[in-house]
């Protein structure tokens, strides 16, 4: 079969292992999935109600312009609807950004050990990816980004996941400003601030990306409703950017990329602030519990501004992952991110968190006793 070289060399994205597959493979009744940074609190009741009502209207095509949702977002972010693009999850928007602004053999810049979709979408489009290593704090290294820019100014896109997946670390406003100052005179470079996890941030010096976007037009803000709002299964993400950036993306976007239920759910989700606060509280409680348990186990972990924690098992992560899987706890190995002894564990419900920590403790004790 004829297929281009870049597609041949592509390693497909490996999603978190599913509950159904794990139950079947290991003959388990109960499985705890803490592998995909999903919401442990499910869907807001208001979202469920809105979805039920709209089932009657599914014979119609969805609104191709997401009019109501964009109006709501425009008000929320003090921009015009022309400065917003809604996507089938933010993953689709990453792909659209690359396909809109890069042509064959262009380059984009990102970090090693950052969200892998940037690389997959770029490789599929025959775009070169330059990755700089993380710094010794496991943060994206803005100095290295800026150094790269001094070597070559022809990056079309720079992807900055803030907070970063899979490390959970973040960059303060001062660091993002350094990058924006270094790119402000480049005519053909967009800086994508991927804020999939920003609703979980507790750090006081986290950037105000909306304010930065108004000052630096090269900024593209990328957000998702898959995380704190729990809409991962419906697929809604959005971009806030200069209106010409949005205009160009809209030229190649499939007209009905965001289905009707997804639009309805997103609108209802934004209106339920109580649910948002509950989801945040559950996450923060879970994170603090994880930190405490890891400290007791003397395991190195990285404090997280997201809804997951990266920790160093001290052993081959695949071995630890497999042992946990047999006990019904699905975590995420991060070898594709060049982190060979580390696992990422998402925050779950109180019960899920407790079971995960108990099993991690048992597995590590067993492995340590053999060493
Ligand atoms: C940093 C980051 N960006 C984007 C996404 C994509 O989210 P979605 O396509 O569900 O909106 C994820 C998903 O895990 C992520 O971790």
Key structural traits:
371 residues, alpha/beta, Aspartate Aminotransferase, domain 1, Aspartate Aminotransferase, domain 2, seven-stranded mixed beta sheet, four-stranded antiparallel beta sheet, 13 strands, globular, binds pyridoxal-5'-phosphate
Quaternary state reads: single chain
CATH architecture group name of the largest domain: 3-Layer(aba) Sandwich
Q: Structural class, please?
A: alpha/beta
What would you call the shape? globular
Per the CATH scheme, the topology name of the largest domain is Aspartate Aminotransferase, domain 2
Helicity level = 40-55%
Bound molecules: pyridoxal-5'-phosphate
How are the strands of the largest sheet arranged? 2-8-7-6-5-3-4
Order of helices and strands: HHEHHEHEHEHEHEHEEHHHEEHEEEH
The CATH class of the largest domain is identified as: Alpha Beta
Mean pLDDT: 95
How do the helices and strands line up, and which of them pair or pack?
Elements: H1 5-8, H2 19-26, E1 32-33, H3 45-54, H4 67-77, E2 84-87, H5 89-101, E3 107-111, H6 117-124, E4 128-132, H7 142-151, E5 155-161, H8 173-183, E6 190-194, H9 209-215, E7 219-224, E8 237-240, H10 243-252, H11 260-271, H12 273-297, E9 300-302, E10 308-312, H13 317-326, E11 329-330, E12 332-333, E13 342-346, H14 350-369
The structure holds pyridoxal-5'-phosphate (PLP).
């Amino acid at each position: 079969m004829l297929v281009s070289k870049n597609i041949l060399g592509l390693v497909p994205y490996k999603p978190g292992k599913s509950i159904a597959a794990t139950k079947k493979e290991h003959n388990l009744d109960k499985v705890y999935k803490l592998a995909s940074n999903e919401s442990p609190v499910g869907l807001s009741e208001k979202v469920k109600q809105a979805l039920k009502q709209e089932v009657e209207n599914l014979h119609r095509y969805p609104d191709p312009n997401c009019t109501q949702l964009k109006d709501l977002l425009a008000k929320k972010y003090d921009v015009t609807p022309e400065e917003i693009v809604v996507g089938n999850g933010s993953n689709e928007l990453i792909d659209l950004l690359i396909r809109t602004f890069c042509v064959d053999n262009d380059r984009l810049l990102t970090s090693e050990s950052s969200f892998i979709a940037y690389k997959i979408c770029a490789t599929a489009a025959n775009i070169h990816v330059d990755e700089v290593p993380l710094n010794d704090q496991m943060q994206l290294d803005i100095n290295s980004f800026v150094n790269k820019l001094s070597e070559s100014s022809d990056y079309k896109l720079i992807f900055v996941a803030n907070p970063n997946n899979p490390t959970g670390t973040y960059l303060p406003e001062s660091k993002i400003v350094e990058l924006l100052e270094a790119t402000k005179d480049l005519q053909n470079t967009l800086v994508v601030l991927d804020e999939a996890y920003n609703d979980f941030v507790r750090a006081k010096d986290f950037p105000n990306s909306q304010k930065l976007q108004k000052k630096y037009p090269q900024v593209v803000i990328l957000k998702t409703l898959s995380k704190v709002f729990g809409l991962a299964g419906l697929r809604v993400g959005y971009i806030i950017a200069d209106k010409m950036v949005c205009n160009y993306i809209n030229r190649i976007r499939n007209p009905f990329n965001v289905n009707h239920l997804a639009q309805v759910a997103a609108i209802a989700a934004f209106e339920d602030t109580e649910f948002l606060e509950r989801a945040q509280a559950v996450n923060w409680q879970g994170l603090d519990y994880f930190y405490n348990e890891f400290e007791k186990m003397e395991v190195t972990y990285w404090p997280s501004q997201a809804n997951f924690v990266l920790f160093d098992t001290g052993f081959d992560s695949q071995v630890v992952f497999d042992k946990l899987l047999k006990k019904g706890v699905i975590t995420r190995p991060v070898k594709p991110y060049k982190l060979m002894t580390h696992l990422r564990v998402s925050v779950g419900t109180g019960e899920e968190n407790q079971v995960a920590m108990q099993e991690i403790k048992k597995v590590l004790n067993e492995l340590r006793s053999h060493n």
